[in-house]
Design goal:
Blueprint lengths: L5 H16 L24 E9 L5 E8 L40 H4 E4 L2 E4 L8
Antiparallel strand pairs: 1-2, 3-4
Length: 129
């Protein structure tokens, strides 16, 4: 889990605890965080392995690291992301994120189909207004 500050991690832990002990049923729609994740335009995906192999004394060592933009994969944006006076994530009450109505935006026909007899898949389709 990326380090977005102690308070954000505390909110995340409270959310996980709530979900673990609630009677509600949830579906995990999280996208994997890996080298193929779609990035915010203009951001670089810099996954890499720092070290993997045997050290000089023969001990196996695997020390991996990565750096990635916060606006990638599945995440939540605070109002501040697009509004200077908007609140940051730690200012959003946890109870406003649970049991709220959702909206399904079906873009299936825009991201895959058949064109000229070949599969036509757009893996990084971007929604706009």
């Amino acid at each position: 889990i990326p380090n977005f500050g102690f308070l954000t991690m505390k909110v995340f832990a409270l959310l996980l605890t709530y979900l673990a002990y609630s009677q509600a049923k949830y579906v995990d729609l999280t996208y994997a965080l890996n080298k193929d994740v779609v990035m915010w335009p203009g951001r670089e995906n810099t996954f890499h392995t720092e070290m993997e192999g045997e050290s000089a004394d023969g001990t196996w060592v695997a020390s991996k690291g990565f750096c990635i933009s916060e606006h990638s994969s599945t995440h939540i944006d605070a109002p501040y992301h697009f509004y200077k006076e908007g609140g940051t994530l730690d200012k959003i009450p946890l109870d406003t994120l649970l049991d709220v109505p959702g909206v399904c935006i079906d873009i299936y026909d825009k991201v895959q189909g058949v064109q000229n007899g070949r599969a036509n898949v757009i893996p990084n389709y971007v929604l706009t207004k």
